[in-house]
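Sequence design from tokenized structure. All designs in this work follow the same two-part layout: the structure record, then the generated sequence. An example of the structure record is given first.
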């Protein structure tokens, strides 16, 4: 996929996540959790249609069955194209799971849960967990016997998916946590909270500012990860064309340097944010001095950096070998 197309997809995803978070603040009944999207909204629409009368009820039943059979439709398409694998029979199980998820989304009061307000979230997580497991196993099954060209295509698609995950973490999960924190500060009647201790009341303005700074510090690793993915995609394209060409060498060097800078800036930003909180603690009504170490992000950067270093050594040996010859 071209760079402009990828940026367009990420921009659309970011806009959708921002819109969902704003709707969650203003219409939490129909937008309780990102994990429940879009099943919660479909259940709400089908329930409204069903209660509109006999024709609406019949239409709701047909839509309920149709939505739940979508994995079976995917199975039929794969079979028609001759791409069916043994793991694809799990799509029947996903259809059964969708019947259950949609039923309880339409009738959320019937779902047995001890914690109020978590039913829809649990249903969404259950389905997405099963779906992700199926997709992972299918990708591994395809890659196990694939040719290098196929592996290159799969890896490019995985990089696109990674960037979509990072965009969700920034504009979906991260922004949602920020909005909830702002709401909590706005509803607090007591003073600053630090490790369970409460002191005198303070103005919330400075706290809002530091909540925003904390959000920026938390999303910074994912921003770097997105940049690394873009560079890795360009590097893969260059390697496919000429593994030892000048473009491949340059992009590999750029990727290694970018990874090193990303690790340093990520660590420095976390330390700087904690120091600022200590310096301005007297004006804050909420302080978060926990050490935020983005372990997954750091591991991802280190893996890419190690891969880039190996490529650099390989390219260096090839150039030396060519000079000897």
């Amino acid at each position: 996929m071209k760079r402009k197309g990828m940026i367009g997809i990420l921009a659309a995803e970011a806009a959708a996540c921002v819109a969902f978070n704003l709707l969650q603040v203003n219409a939490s009944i129909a937008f309780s959790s990102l994990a429940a999207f879009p099943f919660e909204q479909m259940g709400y629409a089908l329930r409204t249609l069903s209660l509109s009368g006999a024709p609406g009820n019949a239409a709701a039943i047909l839509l309920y069955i149709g939505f739940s059979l979508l994995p079976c439709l995917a199975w039929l398409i794969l079979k028609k194209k001759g791409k069916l694998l043994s793991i694809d029979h799990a799509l029947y199980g996903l259809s059964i799971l969708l019947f259950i998820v949609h039923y309880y989304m339409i009738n959320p009061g019937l779902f047995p849960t001890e914690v109020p307000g978590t039913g829809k979230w649990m249903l969404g997580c259950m389905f997405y967990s099963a779906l992700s497991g199926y997709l992972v196993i299918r990708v591994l099954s395809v890659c196990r016997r694939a040719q290098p060209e196929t592996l290159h295509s799969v890896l490019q698609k995985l990089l696109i998916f990674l960037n979509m995950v990072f965009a969700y973490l920034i504009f979906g999960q991260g922004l949602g946590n920020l909005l909830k924190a702002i709401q909590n500060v706005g509803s607090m009647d007591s003073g600053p909270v630090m490790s369970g201790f409460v002191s005198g009341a303070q103005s919330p303005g400075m706290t809002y500012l530091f909540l925003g700074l904390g959000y920026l510090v938390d999303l910074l690793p994912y921003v770097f990860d997105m940049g690394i993915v873009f560079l890795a995609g360009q590097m893969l394209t260059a390697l496919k064309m000429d593994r030892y060409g000048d473009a491949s060498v340059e992009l590999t060097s750029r990727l290694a340097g970018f990874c090193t800078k990303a690790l340093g800036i990520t660590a420095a930003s976390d330390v700087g944010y904690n120091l600022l909180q200590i310096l301005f603690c007297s004006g804050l009504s909420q302080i978060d001095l926990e050490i935020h170490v983005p372990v997954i992000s750091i591991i991802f950067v280190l893996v890419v950096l190690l891969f880039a270093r190996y490529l650099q050594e390989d390219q260096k040996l090839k150039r030396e070998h060519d000079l000897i010859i």
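Residues 189-201 have pLDDT under 50 and may be disordered. We note this feature because it recurs in several other targets discussed in the main text.
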